[in-house]
Amino acid sequence: MRANGRTFVKVCCIQSIDEAELALRAGASALGLVSAMPSGPGVIDEATIAEIAAWAARDIETFLLTALTDADAIVAQHARCRTTTLQLVDHVPEAELVALRRALPAVRLVQVLHVRGPETLDEARAAAAHVDGLLLDSGNPALAVKELGGTGRTHDWKTSRAIRESVRLPVLLAGGLRAENVGAALATVEPFGLDVCSGVRRADRLDPERLAAFFAAVAASRR
Question: What does the alpha-carbon distance between residue 119 and residue 124 come to, in Å, rounded to a whole number?
Answer without folding.
Answer: 9
